[in-house]
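PT: before anyone asks, these are the final sequences, not the draft ones from last week. 285 residues across everything. Please model them as a single complex and drop the result in this thread when it's through.
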Amino acid sequence: MLLDGKAVAASIRSEIADATSEFIATRGVTPKLAAVLVGENPASQVYVRNKQRACDAAGIGSDLHRLTADCGESELLRLVTTLNHDPSVHGILVQLPLPDSIQSQRILQAIDPNKDVDAFHPENVGRLVQGKPRFVPCTPQGIQQLLIRQKIETSGRRVVVIGRSDIVGKPIACMLGNRGVGGDATVTLCHSRTINLNAIARQAEILIVAIGRPQFVGADMVKPGAVVIDVGIHRTDEGLVGDVDFDAVAPLASAITPVPGGVGPLTVAMLLQNTLRAAQLANSE
Ligand code: NAD
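LR: through. Structure below.
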């Protein structure tokens, strides 16, 4: 089965559009995202444009704040502080990666945790680990929603996550191991120092791959009947490919996400979800 992230994302986006118009009607406030783009990274420009278009389609406002690559940490921090104090802004997104001259962690920690729609602030990471999230990071939330909505049971199942990034690997491993719907799994987190990676990956009933290496996972790493979630995105001469060798793995898997059209569209949908949630939290009685 092909796990059609695009279709699932479309239905989530339409739910968010409905919830947004109801929120605007009852509260008289339009949820707004402030996106910050530093420098001219072409992929980042595409990502930010897609996020703004998606906001627009859902009835969520969005502003783009552009800084040059040589702006320096203090100018970026000043902008974040201004956005933190602007009551019309509910969500703040600083598009990563930032130029090497800027320490990303310092910027992410400066964002008001109540406006932290990427959920990278230590307070929000801590809440997620405790199973009491305020915001859930977008890509892992998209993966979990895909599993829930495609009725793929996680409870009691053996999950292997390959990749331990703060953005994908660590939070998804934590979320699937937490109690509750879309959780309760037995999770193994693998990374570049893992020994016998192939053998561990082959134990997975659900295999989640976020390593950033094109078509790294082949048929020898997948148990027949496994569900395979491919987070990777790589531009090649033949178009976009993931971290999984799709042609080799698809015949073995019971379900698999394509690239493009798998996890990517869900990430954007979840950003909308978090922005609406931020506006709801700011305007709750
Ligand atoms: P990252 O580069 O920050 O981290 C990669 C992780 O993979 C590291 O923890 C490393 O230990 C592990 N790793 C690297 N080589 C390995 C190997 N040979 N064996 C085992 N583990 C290995 O990655 P990231 O930010 O999580 O991104 C991963 C991929 O997902 C990238 O292709 C990125 O573009 C993509 N991505 C997609 C989305 C989306 O919305 N679809 C979102 C975020 C990232």
